[in-house]
Amino acid sequence: MVEIELKEIHFTYPRADEPTLRGFSLRLREGKLTSLLGPSGEGKTTVLKIIAGFLKPHRGMVLFDGEDVSGLPPEERGLGIVFQNYALFPHMTVYDNVAFGLRMRGWPRSKIGKRLSEVLKLVGLEGYERRLPRELSGGEQQRLALARALAPRPQVLLLDEPLSALDAALRGELRREIRRIQREIGVTTLYITHDQSEALYLSDHVAILLGGRVVQEGPPEEVYLRPLSLQVARFLEMENLLDGKVVSARGDQVEVEVPALSHIKLKVSTKKNIEGGAEVVVGIRPFHIELLGEEDCGKNILSAEVKEIEFTGKDYLITLRAGSGTIKARTTPVQYDRIRKSIEKGRVAAHLPEDKLILYPAEE
Known about the structure:
- This protein has 364 residues and is α+β, with helices and mostly antiparallel strands.
- It has 2 domains: 4-232, P-loop containing nucleotide triphosphate hydrolases (Rossmann fold); 238-361, CATH 2.40.50.100.
- 26% of the residues lie in helices and 34% in strands.
- It is built from 10 helices and 20 strands.
- The strands form 4 sheets. Strands 6-7-8-3-9-10 form a 6-stranded mixed sheet, sandwiched between helices.
- Helix 2 packs across helix 3, helix 2 (94-104) runs parallel beside helix 4 and helix 3 (109-122) crosses helix 4.
- The radius of gyration is 25 Å and the shape is elongated.
- It starts with a strand and ends with a strand.
């Protein structure tokens, strides 16, 4: 397998007012699945096309194991690609769709038959060899596209939003299959998506693309739980973002007053260099908020009115009001039962742990 590195890529489409990529850099680790996550129209597919050789960057380098491949045509880059619309040949059977690329590469017939048996078994399409694409379900068509991409044993697999056309239940099933297959064969993989749940579930490494460059990357849990900027926190839909003002700062201990939440003063642990008097935004995920009985009090504990309760099937999403502001908390059914009496009375206490609060400069 191969490691890919994109260095300071700049690209602008003809007649476009703004560049699509502005100093884009990313490393695809050998044998790992990296997701490129960003809003629609942000340039994710452009990155894929540059790696594949369909587009040439105006500046920057694309390296395969440290070697510049700018002069290599797509067919010589050792890639397997699954497009958003699958790009299957409608007049060819499953067998011929998968075999097509192998024949174009000059594989002998004996080896084609053996490889097709292997790859169709891998994606769960054994026995489908004589069917046409129109005779397959959406999920089966996606499996066929994946089989065709994997058949030549590519050194890199590029997946361009392959599940976007499927319903929610089928997306869940097939993303598990993609992860299983990728781990089984260990191919270096780039997964393009605008769906954060897909990126978090599938990936060894997640990169966030905003404004034409990677603004944060790392393991999925780290990126989701500790967004480095307010921009990333908003993109990743951090539900609780509260305006505040630093009233004291001593080392890594900061105290922030949040006017909207009855002027509560929150203790926050942070490694950021933030001075007293600074305007900030405080962020916390709903599942990090601990709900207590209405009589509880103490540091970083807020008395709040229960405004709305949503049961999701696996947990409760509870909207709380304190002062003029609202926050959302998630709690498990077991935790919910422990404070059911307080919830039914309409008031609870909410604990915001200082090590789970994140501070961002307000000017971001």
